[in-house]
Amino acid sequence: MPDNERRFAFIFDMDGVLVDNMRLHAHSWVELFNDYGLEGMDPERYLRETAGMKGLDVLRHFLRPDITPEEADRLTELKDFLYRFMYRGEIEPMPGLERFLDAAALMGVSLGVGTGAGEKNIAFTLDREPFRDRFGAVVGSHQVKRGKPHPDIFLRVAEQLGIEPSRCVVFEDALPGIEAATAAGMKSIALSTTNPPEVMRTCKGVMSVVDDFTTISPSEVIDRLLEPQLTDR
After folding, report:
1. What are phi and psi of 26, to 5 degrees?
2. Whose CA, among 19, 36, 45, 216, lies 20 to 30 Å from 232?
């Protein structure tokens, strides 16, 4: 197999994948919406309908479809401030993550992050632990015009890593993220931190559903990625 066909990349969503914090984000959104008179909002509805989307899309979905980008930026920053203030001491790596990243690096797999989070939240998460240095590319919502479920974030990570999309595997917990990965021509490993496993298994492009990184290895992921190619030969 030529060298360029031996190269693979793992692209990780951040919230709900590198760290199990999506419900913390959901509670922060609910606090904001309560202040703006949105009654009956609960964290599960946010997770079910908009988890993983850019703040502008979340606000247009729940608050007002004609909200301006400038107002959305202001409200998203307020929500993110609440999140960072309330949960500063509660962010921990997903179980098994560090072992998984170490094993992938030893195999020569390129590693990247593609997240709907903004710059401050990325720093809040990746700079707390020695995470950022593990990744050859980190792309957030502030670096692309269109967020998930559009493929732009994942395609930009793949481009920065120099890996073809078909040789990238995305690790995602949110339905818009799975959709974005599929649109980018990438297969996915779904984490059941935000949606039930039975929901994630129905999504196109999902090779496997796991609770965390303790029950999966990088070699297993690559084997599953290559299985359809081997079957077709």
Report:
1. -60, -45
2. 216
Q: How far apart are CA 129 and CA 80, in angstroms?
A: 19
Each domain of the chain, given as residue ranges in start order, spans: 3-21+93-232, 22-86
Cα 123 from Cα 56, distance rounded (Å): 20
The arrangement of strands across the sheet holding 187-191 comes to: 137-139, 110-114, 9-12, 168-172, 187-191, 206-210
Tens of pLDDT along the chain (233 residues)? Answer: 344 456 999 999 999 999 989 889 999 999 999 988 888 888 999 988 898 888 999 999 999 999 999 999 999 999 999 999 988 878 889 999 999 999 999 999 999 999 999 899 999 999 876 688 999 999 998 999 999 999 999 999 999 999 999 999 999 999 999 999 999 999 999 999 999 999 999 999 999 999 999 999 999 999 999 986 543 33
- 47, burial (CB in 10 Å: exposed 0-12, middle 13-18, buried 19+): buried
Which pTM was predicted?
0.86
